[in-house]
Every structure is written in structure tokens, then in C-alpha cells.
């Protein structure tokens, strides 16, 4: 289920919020940002979730559904597990930069 489709559904339990759905970060910005390949874009998506009133409900729902990837509630999920940060593509350097 896409992020947009999830937000269009009515929550199982009412979530008290004073802002309309269009004020949510995931509605104001490109939805692809929450499923980005670039670690810097993933960190930007996580930061945008910081002030969202639905942050906790979003993360809880994603964990319950076993979302395979993406930023949900300000956390990165990979293979349905919350991970601290996304590694860049490719092999790690042998020598520190």
C-alpha cells in the first residue's frame, strides 16, 4: 500500500490533529522521497517527519503491516525492520576517506 493510499483511509482509532491532511509533510513533498535510494534523501524524509502529528501512528501502522521499505513515522524500515540509517550503494571503502 502506498503512503498516499494509507493516508486516504480513515484511521482505526481517531487521531487528534489540528492540521488538515494537506499539511502533512508526506502530502506537501514528493512521495518518492520516502522511498528514496540516496541516504541523504532518506535522512531528509526522516527529518521532515519530525513535527508530523501522525508520526507515531504512521510508524505503528507500518510495523503492524510489515512494510518492506521506506520512511514511516520518521524511521527507516528495510525488510520490515527499523534500521538507523541507509548505507550507500556499493562496497564500503577499505581505507577511511
From TrEMBL:
Annotated compartments: Cytoplasm
Cofactor(s), names only, from the UniProt record: [4Fe-4S] cluster
Domain 4Fe-4S Wbl-type: start-end pairs: 25-82
Record flagged with keyword Iron: yes
Sequence positions that bind [4Fe-4S] cluster: 26, 49, 52, 58
InterPro entries for the chain: 4FE4S_WBL, Whib
Details of cofactor binding: Binds 1 [4Fe-4S] cluster per subunit. Following nitrosylation of the [4Fe-4S] cluster binds 1 [4Fe-8(NO)] cluster per subunit.
Major subcellular site: cytoplasm
Annotated keywords: 4Fe-4S, Cytoplasm, Disulfide bond, DNA-binding, Iron, Iron-sulfur, Metal-binding, Transcription, Transcription regulation
Record flagged with keyword ATP-binding: no
Positions of region (Disordered): 1-21
Free-text description of this protein's post-translational modifications in UniProt: The Fe-S cluster can be nitrosylated by nitric oxide (NO).
Similarity section: Belongs to the WhiB family.
Function comment: Acts as a transcriptional regulator. Probably redox-responsive. The apo- but not holo-form probably binds DNA.
Protein name stated in the entry: Transcriptional regulator WhiB
Organism listed in the record: Kineococcus glutinatus
Organism taxonomic ancestry: Bacteria, Bacillati, Actinomycetota, Actinomycetes, Kineosporiales
